[in-house]
Write a structure and sequence with these properties.
CATH topology: Alpha/beta knot
Shape: globular
Strand order of the largest sheet: 2-1-4-3-5
Number of domains: 1
CATH superfamily: SPOUT methyltransferase, trefoil knot domain
CATH class: Alpha Beta
Helix content: 40-55%
Radius of gyration: 15 Å
Number of strands: 5
Distance between the termini: 26 Å
Order of helices and strands: EHEHEHEHEH
Number of helices: 5
Length: about 160
């Protein structure tokens, strides 16, 4: 099983890359994490935000395979604590599919991406900056795996 994180936004600051890479490298070989960055849709005064979201949705949907189990990160989604995430991770492992976690752009995910999702997860009711979401997500995936593995990291 591979954990694919599809994230709108490119050219992250070095501190984001370092933070994400720290947790990605800790993941086991049988559960690798791959970040796939997608270009954001253009947002200008003369263009529609809906058009930008649709373009981001097109890019995101083109990276999904039919057999992927999709989890949309969405503020109105279900809130999971770390043990619940660990439980979901255990279920995902039993599916025998790759898991695609979707991080939308500044205006959220395209409705088609939300419709394609098998699950919707809210990291927080707070509005978090997208670079920070990447680090939090990578750390929480690692933390959830350590619970499954009986590793002492989650104390």
């Amino acid at each position: 099983m591979k954990l694919k994180i599809l994230a709108v936004g490119t050219k992250m600051p070095d501190w984001v890359e370092r933070g994400v890479n720290e947790y990605v490298k800790r993941m086991p070989r049988d559960m690798p994490v791959e970040f796939i960055e997608l270009a954001p849709g253009p947002r200008q005064k003369s263009s529609s935000v809906d058009k930008a979201i649709a373009q981001e949705g097109d890019r995101m949907l083109s990276k999904l395979r039919e057999q992927d189990h999709v989890v949309a990160l969405d503020v109105p989604g279900k809130r999971w604590d770390t043990p619940a995430l660990s439980g979901h991770m255990e279920q995902w492992r039993s599916l025998g599919q790759d898991i695609a976690l979707l991080i939308g752009g500044p205006d959220g995910l395209d409705a088609r991406c939300l419709a394609r999702a098998n699950q919707s997860w809210s990291l927080s009711p707070l509005t978090l900056p997208h670079p920070l979401v990447r680090i939090i997500l990578a750390e929480q995936l690692y933390r959830a795996w350590t619970l499954l593995a009986g590793h002492p990291y989650h104390r």
